[in-house]
Amino acid sequence: MNAIVFKLAIGAIGFFGAVCCDNSETVLGTVLDCWYVEEQGGRMGSFPTAITQKKSLLLLRKNEQIGAPLDFIPPNDVEQGLFFDINDPTGVIRNNNFHKSQKKNEKSACEINLYTPQAAFVDWTVYLTKNEVSPLHFGGVWYTSNIQAANKKFSISSIMKVISPSPGTSDDEGNHEQGALGTITSVALNVFTRNPNIKTRLSRDVILDCGFTAENSKEFSVEWRYQYKGSGHVVYAYDGVRDRVEIAQEGTQIFFEELHASGNASLLIRDVNIKHVGTYICTVYVPYLHSQQAIELEIIEPPQLSLTPNPVYVFPGREEKLSCDISRYYPLDVTIEWLTKSAAPGSESQYVNESWQTSHRQNSDGTYNVTSHIWIRPEMKDHETVFTCYVSHVSLKTGTKKTSVVKMAGASGPSIEDAIGMFITAFILYGFLKLIYWLLSSAFSSSSARSSDKEEKVKSS
User: Fold this and answer.
1) CATH number of the domain residue 145 falls in
2) DSSP state, 30?
3) Where are the alpha helices (DSSP H) in 212-255?
4) Whether residue 228 sits in one domain with residue 93
5) Which domain holds residue 24?
6) Domain check: are 374 and 235 in the same one?
7) Domain boundary among 267, 299, 331
8) Fewest CB within 10 angstroms: 146, 221, 255, 385, which?
């Protein structure tokens, strides 16, 4: 009888209610499409023999809607127990960035797994679990979820305990039916970042954003670990129980007052350079639980361009080399293109098909240089033709360019030969006039001297 009533109730919801959609907003909160990932086989500490994925659904419930019945039906392709009704007293997990993306086929990335509470085994967490036996409230079923917004502006990892399993009923034959509620969980620990991907220039100070909320625990420890190309090390480690910094790499800092007051575990790195590029993992430990966030730090240094000669003074039919120097860029890859545009009205830019490029040269600060050049042999009709060196790089939204204009000798105004001839003529004329002036000056001086001698003789007589 109870089974029949249950089926009728589900049918009524189906008739009057609505089937839930992925990545949608309901009165109760935000609903996210997710994957339940389960590892199978393998002994403790070894790799699993198989990994399975099943579709699941997460309801990130609003605090004011805690306890309210569902106003929608979970999809039929979500198995019993894989619809998770998540309650977070802090409200952090229900972030606005998880709303449905405006871009087509773009949605939040989500994964949920089983979790086993256990002590951590690093020096800065020893005092979190001084009692070797975990409290009774760490029994039961636990899950961990990892969600990243489609716009990459928010990422959160949460550890939650099941407070009510997905209810079901049994009919007379013992068959279980999907309940009207999901697997109800309560979040015990959130670790989140509002900037999972950071891009910065060289020699800047950078803050790697990381925050956490912990239910019923004021004891915690924080670890920042660096990883790059398979290797890594601890950058910063803080024992919050003893208020003690265990490891602090030079040039790094956390904000202790904000850390204890509001859970701000962000890391400040001063004067970043190429050696700082990589993945930084922020791990927050509380007694028998820990979770983490990964933040990617990239350095993007835009290229500097110079084009020589500029302008290009050339004789008709004579070959000239144009060089484009691209310097101090990071990361390595750049795309260099040459274009030319005639001065004729209505002409359009055309690509230069043949160019040469040196190998990349690395500077002491890790940035790179490269030179590209072309050879041109313009004719008189090519006067005022513009050549452009165009460079694309990840640091530039629309690329950057330098231009040089061809100036043909004799195309307008005096030619180079004429200018040289005029200079030589002017020089000779100047010399000639200087000579005449000198001769006249000498003759005048001699005449004046003779006149003076005669006057003295007359006076003496």
Assistant:
1) 2.60.40.10
2) E
3) none
4) yes
5) 2-299
6) no
7) 299
8) 255
Same domain, 191 and 321: no
Tell me which of 381, 408, 435 is where a domain ends. 408
Q: Are residues 156 and 272 in the same domain?
A: yes
- Nearest one of 214, 216, 220 to 242, comparing CA atoms: 220
| 442 membership: H or E segment, kind and range | helix 416-460
Report the domain count for the chain.
2
Cβ atoms of 228 and 279 within 8 Å: the answer is yes
Which pLDDT tens digit goes with each residue over 368-422? 999 999 999 999 999 999 999 999 999 999 999 999 999 998 776 555 555 565 5
DSSP string, 373-426: EEEE---GGGTT-EEEEEEE-TT-SS-EEEEEEEEETTSSSS-HHHHHHHHHHH
Residue 72 lies in a domain: yes
217 and 108 within one domain? yes
pLDDT in tens, 199-241: 999 999 999 999 999 987 889 999 999 999 989 999 999 999 9
pTM of the model: 0.78
Q: N- to C-terminal Cα distance for the chain?
A: 165
What string of DSSP letters covers 306-374?
A: EEESSSEEE-TT--EEEEEEEEEEBSS--EEEEEEE-SSTT---EE-S--EEPPPEE-TTS-EEEEEEE
DSSP-assigned states of every residue in 115-168: E------SGGGGGGG-SSS--GGG-S-EEEEEEE-TTSS-EEEEEEEEEEPPP-
Nearest to 72 by CA among 90, 86, 57, 88: 57
Task: Take residue 450 and report the two structure tokens written for it.
Answer: 């003779």
For residues 312 and 383, give the distance between their C-alpha atoms in angstroms, rounded to a whole number. 10
Per-residue DSSP letters for 190-204?
EEEES-SEEEE-TT-
Half-sphere exposure of 178 (CA within 13 A, CB side): 16
Q: 208 by DSSP, 3-state: which? A: strand
259/340 same-domain check: no
Q: Are residues 257 and 373 in the same domain?
A: no
